[in-house]
Design a protein that fits this description.
Blueprint: H1 2-9, E1 39-44, H2 50-61, H3 70-82, E2 86-90, H4 97-100, E3 102-107, E4 123-128, H5 130-141, E5 155-157, E6 164-167, H6 176-185, E7 187-190, H7 204-214, H8 223-234, E8 240-244, E9 249-256, E10 261-262, E11 270-285, E12 299-301, H9 309-315, H10 330-333, E13 334-336, E14 345-350, H11 357-361, E15 382-383, E16 390-391, E17 397-404, H12 415-420, E18 422-425, H13 433-442, H14 446-460, H15 478-496, H16 501-508, E19 513-517, E20 537-541, H17 549-555
Parallel strand pairs: 1-17, 1-18, 2-14, 6-8, 14-17
Antiparallel strand pairs: 3-4, 5-13, 6-12, 7-11, 8-9, 9-11, 10-11, 15-16, 19-20
Helix pairs in contact: 2-3, 7-8, 14-16
């Protein structure tokens, strides 16, 4: 029955005829083939290379050239992870919707932004899970229309080595008018500085001296000095500014387009013109682009060691055309963006069958279907239960799951998930180049050894519990093979056959394990109830495998306790 299910699920999903044109295209573009959304599950016995196959598939879906060299492939995979284009998680029995999509988390910040932990106060706030996070990134990177770019031709901004600043524009929820004015006017402003015009003060020393004229003895760490210096002197045209929403979220990203200006009649007198690259109605997490929470300082440069430039570059893949602004090097800093340049994202779910999939995905299971993705012909969205925000799965987000067929929980895989995923089996394969390299280096007939083991497992158990070729990859000596047999293969067989050592001996032969008849202990002789054919046997893994262990395995000469010894068989090359 289980094999029938696998064969049924292996059929591919219906091919999507064509993808919908993106709303960002202001000018007509030639038809470009865009990767259709992929929902794929790789399944197979342990050790069949699912991890490696997942990395290859994830890199391919990210529209990257897949290297043949394993080290190069994994280096590229890790780079894409740092750019937030590949996310990885493992399902487990305790995984829930609140972990995967969104849930409520305690927050010690009160509604006015002050720390309420000292009084024991907290509030529960919606927090996105890994699926919602990567879906938001994919949606933003695709350049769906927003306040900043809906009227502009989309381009890819080059982050390069620009300085990146964090800046607060009023307290979120308290001084939102400052932020909203900045969005409307394209001007960011700083409240520090005591109403002094800093135009003619272009060094730290000059700012420090000018402030001390009015406030003698002021330390240089005072915000009126340090903040004014960063905003007036450190910040340059072309730098990027992340506008915070508290210490853990970003609500907008801007590019500085002009020099410092003083506005004596404004509420905040220190100002700089910017163009808005991204404005997030639903703020994104700070750790998307920066591995530390923001501090309370109004304006400061982000530390390079914590800045995720690759992730920031991905986020700014589709923004408004910088040539609308006269900022000098704009043509070199951007290139036209379109369907071919839309970054692709991949979520890898290891052991996808170990969780209650219906519970984890919830109502989003319908949104996984390729034609119901954002940007596709039958796009659907839902209102999330905690944040009450509208949510859809973008078409440039692909999902890869892995399943271990030896896991006895595999039968619990949700039927709705089966219908929405393509299944691809990864079976043991002795022809893999890395496995053949192990055959060559060890001088052993490992291909015949593995084939013999799997034939017996399939006969005694089933095909889903075979042994994968990857266990032997990397072996260079016979001692390495012995180590794999002792530490990997035999423990796996113990699990497969529920400690039935007679079955293990039937698979491997008694060159790897040995059994001795177990007589009744002293005082229990009269309780002996076993017939001679049912005599108990004490089994153990040999301290040193027999010299002919692999010969016996290859030739199918299985010796059980009490049998006559098998003839010596010459070792096969």
């Amino acid at each position: 029955m289980q094999s029938f299910i696998w064969e049924t699920c292996r059929a591919p999903l219906d091919t999507i005829a064509e993808t919908a044109a993106t709303d960002l295209e202001i000018e007509p573009m030639p038809a470009i083939e865009i990767p259709a959304p992929t929902n794929l599950i790789l399944y197979g016995p342990p050790g069949t290379g699912k991890t490696y196959a997942t990395a290859r598939e994830a890199v391919r879906l990210c529209a990257e050239n897949v290297p043949e060299d394993r080290d190069e492939l994994m280096a590229l995979y890790r780079r894409l992870q740092k750019e937030n284009r590949i996310a990885f998680l493992t399902f487990h029995q305790s995984m829930a919707y609140e972990d995967f999509v969104e849930g409520l988390r305690p927050d010690t910040k009160s509604s006015d932004g002050e720390d309420a932990s000292s009084s024991g106060g907290f509030q529960l706030v919606p927090a996105p899970g890994i699926f919602r996070k990567i879906a938001r990134l994919a949606e933003e990177a695709a350049g769906l229309p927003d306040k900043a770019s809906s009227a502009s031709k989309p381009v890819r901004l080059d982050v390069g080595q620009r300085q990146v600043f964090k800046m607060s524009l009023g307290r979120a929820g308290i001084e939102d008018h400052i932020y909203e004015d900045a969005l409307e006017t394209g001007i960011i402003s700083l409240g520090w500085g005591g109403g002094i015009d800093w135009t003619d003060h272009d060094t730290y020393e000059a700012i420090h001296a000018r402030w001390n004229q009015d406030h003698p003895g002021t330390n240089g760490n005072d915000g009126n000095i340090s903040q004014s210096y960063r905003f007036r002197v450190s910040m340059k045209v072309g730098d990027l500014v992340l506008i915070s929403a508290g210490n853990t979220q970003i609500r907008a990203i801007a590019e500085v387009t002009g020099d410092y200006a003083f506005a004596p009649d404004a509420e905040y007198t220190n100002q700089r013109p910017v163009r808005w690259l991204k404005v997030f109605d639903d703020p994104i997490a700070v750790d998307t682009v920066y591995s530390r929470p923001f501090t309370q300082r109004s304006c400061y440069r982000l530390r390079e060691e914590f800045l995720k430039r690759g992730a920031l570059q991905t986020l700014l893949s589709n923004v408004s055309d910088p040539q609308e602004f006269d900022i000098g090097a704009a043509p070199e800093s951007a290139q036209a963006a379109g369907p071919a340049n839309i970054p692709q994202f991949v979520l890898v779910i290891d052991e996808i069958n170990r969780a209650n999939v219906s519970k984890v995905f919830g109502e989003l299971i319908t949104l996984l279907e390729p034609d119901k993705r954002l940007g596709m012909t039958n796009a659907l969205t839902v209102t999330l239960p905690y944040s009450r925000r509208e949510f859809g799965v973008p078409a440039n987000l692909h999902i890869i799951g892995t399943m271990n067929t030896a896991d006895r929980s595999i039968a619990r895989l949700d039927t709705a998930l089966r219908r929405r995923f393509t299944f691809r089996e990864l079976a043991p394969d002795v022809h893999v180049a890395a496995f053949q390299e192990a055959v060559r280096k060890t001088g052993m007939a490992l291909d015949k050894v593995l084939t013999g083991i799997n034939e017996r497992i399939e006969y005694l158990h089933d095909r889903e519990h075979r042994i994968g070729h990857a266990f032997f990859i990397g072996c260079t000596t016979p001692e390495d093979v012995d180590r794999v047999m002792r530490q990997k293969i035999i423990p796996l067989l113990q699990e497969y056959f529920f400690e039935d050592w007679g079955m293990i001996a039937a698979v491997l032969g008694t060159g790897f394990v040995e059994g001795q008849p177990l007589g009744a202990p002293r005082g229990l002789e009269k309780l002996q109830t076993f017939a001679p054919s049912e005599a108990k046997i004490r089994w153990r893994v040999r301290d040193r495998f027999a010299a002919d262990a692999y010969d016996t395995l290859l030739n199918g000469l299985v010796e059980l306790p009490g049998d006559e010894p098998a003839d010596q068989v010459a070792q096969e090359a």
